[in-house]
Amino acid sequence: MSERLRKILTLVFVREPGKILLGLKKRGFGCGLWNGFGGKVEKNETILQGAKRELVEECGIQADVLERIGLINFEFENDPVIMEVHVFLTFHYIGDPVETEEMKPEWYKDGEIPFNQMWPDDKYWFPYMLQKRKFEAYFLFKGMDTILDYWIKESLNDCCSSVNKII
Ligand SMILES: Nc1[nH]c(=O)nc2c1ncn2[C@H]1C[C@H](O)[C@@H](COP(=O)(O)OP(=O)(O)OP(=O)(O)O)O1
Q: The pTM is what?
């Protein structure tokens, strides 16, 4: 098997009953799109620690308890990197969302999520996340806009990455 490079990332969704906190990404990967909060896991931290750190850094919210809800692997055509995104949920948090250099936060009602200004994969797996159904998914992209192939299943294993190399 050829060596794949795995990039481990987090994505955190803060919830209130019937509402979800999204952030408009102001720079970097996914700039101009609404999404949860997250980023790359650093070498000296666990995935959970990385998720909590990014949530504070990107919108000033502290969450002591995060529920692991999904795992999504993204591949891009002709790119050896696999992006492994760990998705978390919380209803229990401290602080009010604040705008940062990276993200502009805003609450959305569950029925008014701006999918046309989000990654194209989100509309496939958000229903699982919103209903607290654990899921695993895979998406193969061509560029940033076209999904060539995907699958989603309702389950989530304990194990994390079968890492060849973490970048
Ligand atoms: N197709 C996709 N659908 C989605 O919903 N979220 C995605 C996605 N691809 C990436 N993400 C998420 C994962 C992660 O939370 C975020 C990208 O991470 P980062 O914010 O760290 O990226 P950056 O390149 O801006 O990193 P920094 O330069 O370190 O800030 O986008």
A: 0.93
